[in-house]
């Protein structure tokens, strides 16, 4: 998906030591409508004002469940991976590498932008849609890597009494997702049955956050319904999740990302001049290729703000 805002705010991320202790901090998201008044409403909890990243996870949009149509024309990305995960519905991905892939619930679409990629996304008209779109920032050593696309219809899962944890990205409890990652991290969906209690193994050196996708989960004693992101900090070796009614949660985690980055529109870079170059190359050049079969005309980049974009740390 794309950041379709016409006046995207500069976003601060990356860098410098931070939380090493467990915390339970509810981070309120903001509602963003993608693609105009009849567009799709999403709740964006990353980047957040206070916690801009969780590990290398730097962007989290949760949409649905609602009847909606996703129509995102071709747009560029740099320096990140996009992670697409559905609970309901289907989305067709196309990119400038020639990939054409429908994603369905329980499957992972992972696109590595590396130095430059462009893609489009669409869903069948007016059908039930529910899912998340995430971005993972690439570390400096890998951010110029060649673009790539992966579809993973089968992912490892950890099952316990009344719950199943599906590992989308990275590692959880010794299970490793086949998806390519560039920094130590975790992304998992945890499905809980009525009255279930799940004890999820965590790594004390990772920071974590959890989002409810549906239902209310009790996460380390905090009631969490769909909406806010519960930031958990670091220094934990397990997380207890409970559900009265069936519920579904997304767990994100990773080694704190110590680089300062600049996020602007659909680009992740390291300084203002680089973002200016990405924007110019998208608007005037062919560095991002073209997306065969993409609907509509490619999305124009918004105007840059009047003041220089500054690289930011991962916490406020
Ligand atoms: Mn996108």
Provide the structure class: mainly beta
Taking all Cα atoms into account, the compactness measure Rg is 18 Å
Instruction: Write down the overall mean pLDDT.
Output: 93
**Ligand roster:** manganese (II) ion
Descriptive overview:
With 316 residues, the chain is mainly β. It has a single domain (20-254), classed as Jelly Rolls. Helices cover 4% and strands 49% of the residues. It is built from 1 helix and 26 strands. The strands form 5 sheets. Strands 2, 14, 15, 16, 17, 19, 22 and 24 form an 8-stranded antiparallel beta sheet that branches. The longest helix has 13 residues, at 272-284. It is globular, with a radius of gyration of 18 Å. The structure holds manganese (II) ion. Residues 1-2, 75, 77, 82, 119, 266 line the site of manganese (II) ion (MN).
List keywords for this structure.
single chain; 316 residues; mainly beta; Jelly Rolls; 8-stranded antiparallel sheet; 7-stranded antiparallel sheet; binds manganese (II) ion
Summarize the structure.
The chain has 316 residues and is mainly beta. It has a single domain (20-254), classed as Jelly Rolls, CATH 2.60.120.
Which helices and strands occur, and which strands form pairs?
Layout: E1 11-14, E2 22-27, E3 30-34, E4 40-46, E5 57-68, E6 71-77, E7 80-88, E8 91-95, E9 100-103, E10 108-112, E11 117-122, E12 127-137, E13 148-152, E14 157-160, E15 163-172, E16 175-176, E17 185-192, E18 197-201, E19 207-214, E20 217-219, E21 222-224, E22 229-233, E23 238-243, E24 247-254, E25 260-264, E26 267-269, H1 272-284
Antiparallel strand pairs: 1-25, 2-22, 3-4, 4-5, 5-12, 6-11, 7-10, 7-12, 8-9, 8-11, 10-13, 14-15, 15-16, 15-17, 17-24, 18-23, 19-22, 19-24, 20-21, 20-23, 25-26
The structure holds manganese (II) ion (MN).
